[in-house]
Amino acid sequence: MTDRLEHFLGRMAPWFLHPLRAALFCALGWLVLLPLCWQHPLMTALAWSSFWALLMALKLEAPILQGLPLPPLTVLLLGMSMRWGLGPLLMALGGHGSDSFLSIWLSYGSHAQLLWLVFTFILLIGGLFHRSSISRASASLPSGLWLKVFQDPKHDRLRRQLAGLAAVLTVYMGFYLLLSLLSGAFDRQFDIYTSWAHRLWRLDTPVAAFSRLRDLWLLLFPLWWRVLQPRWRWLLTSLLLLYIASALLSGSRGLLFYPAVLLLSGSWFVISKLNQLRRLALALAAVLIVMSPVIYLTRESVLFQRAPNWQTRAAAVVETLLTPDPLFEKLRWLGRDLYACHDPYLFTPENRSLQPVGSAGLENLIYLWLPRHVMPTRPVLFDGHLIAKHLQRIQSSAWSDVWFPCFSLPADLFRRWQWTGVVFGSLVLSGVIQICLGFWYRHVSLPGTSFQLFLLVYPASYLQSFPFGTVSETCWALFWELPKYLLLFWVLGQLVDRSVDRCRSLSQDL
What we know:
Elements: H1 3-9, H2 13-16, H3 19-33, H4 41-60, H5 72-94, H6 100-127, H7 131-139, H8 146-151, H9 156-183, H10 190-196, H11 205-208, H12 212-227, H13 230-250, H14 254-266, H15 274-300, H16 302-305, H17 310-321, H18 327-338, H19 349-352, H20 384-391, H21 409-443, H22 450-457, H23 471-509
């Protein structure tokens, strides 16, 4: 049941979806790029190994990929390959230039990649045990283009459920944009950013707590646009354009890059000509290669940082566009965007002699289910930025206090327990994730309840908001945030289903 995926991959499908041929393809890709990355052969080889793992996840979940673009294992492996695979590869192609962060990454990044390699392959091997569950899940889902299912007159209830999700998520998206713009939460101008970064209660706090709903809105946008009535299209398009404009003029790269990938993924629901989707994907990649570094360079410019109004910010964007850099320089900035974590600093000469910290700080996990807004004095759980700044010997200042660099799970496991921690920690976490995957495979269905519809698209939200921060941050994502969203989806699903049943009952009475 790999027909649609095979058609999308085209002539490369026999290579990409066969383990040995895919490995040979990745080896050939490494050899082809080696003259351009000759100073970093190991980093480039590890990047290609992440691509192989992603291809194997696609092969494993191919039956579900007939209609659903982002099933859970594919999302996790795609996120990993983009971060520790594609990101380092682009940095290796572009070189470090004069950027100290890129210099550290290119010198010690392969050590951090090896940590990710262990975790990624343990997770992938665990996924192999779900093959029968994947087959059963695919049997409960439509095969082929989902647009036809939602347009089928026999599925009136399903179409009403989709409209209910559109209403709920669009209301959220409207408040998300409004409150984020009014609070300055989107803004990366230094003066505005420092004014809100440390506030416990902000205007956007109610919507920020459920920000994954934004990603679901973006994924479902193409399906809504094709299925719902024209008046909905005007509203949806207006919100999307406002979102893109806000992301561009606020200087936030993440608000543009991953939403573009989600919108493209949502096109899988509605585009039947897969060669057209391939061309769209290539065009999007070209745009992102240019726009991502442009946004970064614009944000760091003096003109942007001191801009008194939005018109001046637009002028800063134009000025950056008129001074283009060579392609390889753009590639390294995009690579920096994809993997911005500071894991390589763990392996610099001044940090190699540091003793493992063991379980230090993990006693704070007893406060996991006490939100900081309820208990402001709660010990720190989001400790990635503290670890990253400690490894770089960064002192407290007005700038560093509002800088929140990331530090990943494999690197934190190594920092705590060395390679033993990486292996056993990856095994334990993989076991927890396999339980979550099994739950998803068993409970998805279409047609089904609105809760199941939410559940179907929920994994896509992990593409941008990746769950693998430090040990504490990962525990928070799995044991606090995940149950929170499941409860939210159940409540919203009940509201949508009851509204749909009530509307159908009234229409029948009339």
